[in-house]
């Protein structure tokens, strides 16, 4: 086990350097001059222009800029934004908000997938199964931003059940609507996994044995069927956690949630290269870690899997 | 990139604009606290906080280094300059007791006694002079340094600690000497670049930028008033010594990532005033808000520029005929109606209806109205001189929501003139500006201008004077330069405007840029507030707003 973890961590090192290099390269090769864009339609004077170029190291060759950046990164300095704030600080402000949103969304997703998947699996082919399938397909085929607008307009504005936007009050109770909306557009995969493995395990020998021992389905369903069927759902949900951390830009924009997505978006609009790279670097690291954890989760949940 | 209205809104704001200006003064009733006090239904509401929209400042909150709307809105609320502008753009003294224009190159400024910054230090002549010198100093590379290039001693070549043109006479008096005549200089002094700074700034500009100390109507509500990326809370400044006394208790500016979110909040009653409407709601917002919808011209001029160096478009007879034909071939009325849902106003000159001296009846302005027959006729005349070859291209930045109108415009040109015409998208605004500034671009390109201060000259001098900083088309006409020069040296306002209008009439013949339309400001407010008026700079006049 320990060796496996070590190996995975070692593998993460080239992934880390590869992604940061690619990222930096892509941001660097974005067409257009970010300094000129800072001035809108007005052409800056050459002296001011040159001094800004120097200030942001834009006059150095690409590889030098990259190395300068990596040096700062390893000393824990993620650079400063154009407004003079340290990127560390910006991240520390935004991250808890996104983490809260994503945690809530993932919990909703898991509950929806597990409960509806179990119902579908137990009643495979029956009306409730078909109904579940249709609803899930419809929800899954709606683009996330449409679902967000829809939820905001009808549930928050129309019915007044939730705040229209989140803004400064980013708490569990103000963010349930965007979290639930994310979950609704995501749960279908987990639900189908659950359904499939419920059907599979109901036909499995150990379930037959359990019934043969005289256990009621009240005991068999949760303990023998559901528990074993949850393994793929858990890992699927956990994997979507990593993807969501970096994938809430649209949601955060629509509900005005001051998290990672909104900050990253503002940075892209403002052409703030260092901020973009730093944020995405942290997200990459987190994604790698979440993925390692997910793989380890398999071993914890499924005794048949052993890592060596 | 995800589909997101912010892309359109955000970049459009950045591209149309670089600058947003000061808050506005008013002499008409609202400024008198006692008179307005009786208008307010409930006394307790004088302390009510007005909630409005904004965006995270992209730079530290320092007047000399803020050139975008997000920070500009805050800076204008917490600082007061020598003069302020009212809703129509007319300037009146604020911190200044008197600004004497000795001649077009020399001014003497006297300050009112009794103004203080919120840290208790007095506002003196040095507060202005030191701030201006700091902003103008090349070493500091501040965005707004160009505002000082007309002052004697300013240099683009070497850092200057103190410009020789600024001289402190005593605590409340200083003189300004300019290196060239600029009779509208006093009119410019309300722009944020000219705001005073307290001594605390010079001790530690970085700390100041996060916790600015001003002398304006509002001040930061405390150490943590600016929650980055979330909101900023301002409260009224009890020591504010001007006449634009707030009729409310403060301002909370929420930073929205998208205009959609701000609009939804307005409908939900979570924000009181917004100064932008998302594209998705443009068709319905006037219906949804009724008389609480705002749609009025802004100090933003949109055009496209045809560089002189392009074949067929030189400043000769052929080029002039072709430029005029182009202009006549564009159906501005229809495009502003259909594409922009009436949120643009067809242009009738090179400035904006919100500035002093604007008129829609300049000689030659009919070249800006649609006349297919005349257009085709002029184009044919040009063809006789030198037959047309190639395709007319109009470059634009695809990240700014410009595609629809560019397509409509080139279609209008194509069908009227019978030539090949197409839009030429650049992926980003930065990319377009790079090609424009380096003269690499080989096509016409979209241009826009937002005024820094409400004067005609600001729309003309920086854009069309020979070798001017933002003269993207490299236009040069000695006759125009001479009229501009004469205008800006004239102290008398109406005469000055008259000369500048004559200069504009030359532009209407030469058409270095083809005027298209003026952008409107679109906004709205909730039922919870009244007395909402938008200023000449498209920002609501916050201090007059009262909560019901």
UniProtKB/TrEMBL annotation, chain A:
Entry keyword annotation includes Transmembrane: yes
BP GO terms, sorted: transmembrane transport
InterPro entries in the cross-refs: BPD_transp_1_N, MetI-like, MetI-like_sf
Short name of any one Pfam family annotated for the protein: BPD_transp_1_N
Topology of the protein relative to the lipid bilayer: Multi-pass membrane protein
GO cellular component: plasma membrane
Domain of life (superkingdom): Bacteria
Entry's localization field: Cell membrane
Membrane-traversing stretches: 12-30, 94-119, 131-155, 175-194, 276-301
Record key words, sorted: Cell membrane, Membrane, Transmembrane, Transmembrane helix, Transport
Keyword Membrane on entry: yes
Main location: membrane
Annotated ABC transmembrane type-1 domain residues: 95-298
Similarity comment text for this entry: Belongs to the binding-protein-dependent transport system permease family.
PANTHER family (alphabetical): DIPEPTIDE TRANSPORT SYSTEM PERMEASE PROTEIN DPPB-RELATED, DIPEPTIDE-TRANSPORT INTEGRAL MEMBRANE PROTEIN ABC TRANSPORTER DPPB-RELATED
Name listed for the protein in its UniProt record: ABC transporter permease
UniProtKB/TrEMBL annotation, chain B:
GO biological process, one term: peptide transport
GO molecular function: peptide transmembrane transporter activity
Record bears the keyword DNA repair: no
SUPFAM superfamilies tied to this protein: Periplasmic binding protein-like II
A Pfam entry, by short name: SBP_bac_5
CDD domains for this protein: PBP2_NikA_DppA_OppA_like (cd00995)
Organism ancestry: Bacteria, Bacillati, Actinomycetota, Actinomycetes, Micrococcales
Protein name: ABC transporter substrate-binding protein
Keyword Metal-binding: no
UniProt keyword terms in alphabetical order: Signal
One Gene Ontology cellular component: ATP-binding cassette (ABC) transporter complex
Domain Solute-binding protein family residues, every copy: 100-469
PROSITE patterns assigned to the protein according to its UniProt record, in alphabetical order: PROKAR_LIPOPROTEIN (PS51257)
Signal peptide segment: 1-22
Domain of life, source organism: Bacteria
Originating organism: Demequina activiva
């Amino acid at each position: 086990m320990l060796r496996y973890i070590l190996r995975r961590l070692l593998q993460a090192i080239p992934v880390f350097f590869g992604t940061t290099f690619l990222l930096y390269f892509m941001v660097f090769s974005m067409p257009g001059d970010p300094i000129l864009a800072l001035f809108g339609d007005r052409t800056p004077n050459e002296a001011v222009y040159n001094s800004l170029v120097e200030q942001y190291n834009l006059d150095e060759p690409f590889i030098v800029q990259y190395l300068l950046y990596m040096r700062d990164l390893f000393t824990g300095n993620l650079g400063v934004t154009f407004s003079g704030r340290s990127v560390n600080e910006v991240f520390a402000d935004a991250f808890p908000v996104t983490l809260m949103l994503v945690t809530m969304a993932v919990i909703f997703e898991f509950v929806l997938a597990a409960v509806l998947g179990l119902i579908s699996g137990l009643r495979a082919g029956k009306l409730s199964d078909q109904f579940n399938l249709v609803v899930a397909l419809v929800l899954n085929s709606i683009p996330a931003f449409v679902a967000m607008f829809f939820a905001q307009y009808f549930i928050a504005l129309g019915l007044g059940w939730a705040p229209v936007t989140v803004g400064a009050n980013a708490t569990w109770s103000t963010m349930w609507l965007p979290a639930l909306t994310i979950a609704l557009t995501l749960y279908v995969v987990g639900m189908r996994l659950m359904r499939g493995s419920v059907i599979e395990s109901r036909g499995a020998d150990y379930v037959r044995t359990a019934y043969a021992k005289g256990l009621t389905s009240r005991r068999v369903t949760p303990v023998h069927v559901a528990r074993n069927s949850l393994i793929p759902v858990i890992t699927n949900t956990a994997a979507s956690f990593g993807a969501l951390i970096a994938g809430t830009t649209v949601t955060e924009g629509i509900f005005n949630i001051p998290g990672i997505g909104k900050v990253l978006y503002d940075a892209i609009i403002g052409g703030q290269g260092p901020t973009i790279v730093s944020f995405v670097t942290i997200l990459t690291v987190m994604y790698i870690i979440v993925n390692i954890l997910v793989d380890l989760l398999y071993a914890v949940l499924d005794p048949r899997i052993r890592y060596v | 990139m995800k589909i997101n209205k912010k892309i359109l809104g955000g970049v459009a704001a950045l591209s149309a604009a670089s600058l947003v200006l000061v808050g506005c003064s008013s002499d008409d009733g609202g400024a008198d606290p006692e008179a307005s006090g009786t208008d307010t239904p409930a006394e307790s509401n004088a302390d009510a906080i007005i909630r409005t929209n904004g965006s995270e400042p992209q730079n530290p909150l320092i007047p000399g280094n803020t050139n975008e709307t997000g920070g500009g809105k805050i800076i204008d609320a917490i600082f007061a300059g020598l003069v302020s502008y009212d809703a129509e753009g007319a300037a009146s003294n604020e911190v200044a007791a008197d600004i004497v224009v000795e001649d077009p190159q020399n001014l003497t400024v006297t300050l009112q006694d009794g103004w203080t910054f919120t840290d208790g230090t007095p506002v003196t002549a040095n507060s202005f002079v030191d701030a201006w010198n700091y902003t103008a100093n090349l070493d500091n590379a501040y965005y707004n340094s160009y505002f000082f290039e007309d002052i004697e001693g300013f240099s683009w070549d070497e850092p200057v600690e103190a410009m020789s043109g600024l001289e402190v006479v005593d605590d409340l008096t200083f003189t300004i000497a300019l290196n060239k005549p600029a009779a509208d200089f006093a009119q410019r002094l309300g722009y944020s670049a000219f705001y005073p700074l307290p001594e605390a700034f010079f001790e530690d500009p970085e700390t100041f930028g996060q916790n600015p100390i001003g002398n304006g109507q509002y001040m930061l509500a405390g150490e943590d008033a600016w929650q980055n990326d979330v909101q900023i809370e301002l409260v009224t400044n009890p020591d504010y010594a001007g006449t634009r006394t707030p009729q409310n208790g403060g301002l909370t500016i929420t930073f929205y990532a998208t205009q959609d979110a701000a609009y939804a909040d307005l409908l939900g009653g979570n924000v009181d005033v917004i100064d932008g409407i998302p594209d998705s709601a443009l068709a319905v917002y006037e219906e949804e808000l009724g008389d609480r919808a705002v749609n009025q011209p802004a100090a933003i001029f949109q055009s496209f520029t045809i560089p002189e160096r392009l074949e067929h478009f030189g400043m000769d007879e052929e080029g002039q005929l072709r430029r005029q034909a182009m202009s006549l071939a564009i159906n501005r009325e229809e495009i502003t109606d259909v594409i922009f849902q009436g949120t643009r106003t067809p242009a009738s000159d090179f400035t904006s209806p919100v500035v002093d001296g604007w008129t829609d009846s300049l000689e030659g302005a009919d070249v800006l109205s649609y006349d297919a027959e005349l257009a085709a006729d002029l184009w044919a005349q040009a063809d006789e001189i030198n037959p047309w070859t190639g395709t007319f291209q109009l470059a634009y930045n695809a990240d700014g929501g410009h595609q629809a109108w560019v397509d409509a415009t080139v279609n209008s040109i194509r069908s009227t003139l019978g030539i090949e015409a197409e839009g030429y998208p650049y992926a980003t605004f930065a990319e377009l500006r790079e090609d424009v500034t380096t003269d690499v671009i080989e096509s016409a390109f979209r241009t826009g201008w937002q005024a820094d201060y409400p004067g005609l000259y600001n729309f003309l001098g920086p854009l069309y004077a020979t070798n001017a900083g933002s003269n993207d088309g490299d236009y040069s006409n000695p006759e125009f330069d001479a009229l501009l020069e004469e205008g800006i040296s004239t102290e008398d306002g109406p005469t000055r405007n008259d000369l500048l209008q004559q200069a504009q009439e030359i532009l209407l013949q030469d058409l270095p840029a083809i005027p298209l339309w003026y952008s409107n400001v679109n906004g709205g407010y909730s039922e919870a507030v009244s007395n909402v008026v938008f200023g000449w700079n498209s920002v609501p006049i916050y201090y007059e707003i009262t909560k019901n």
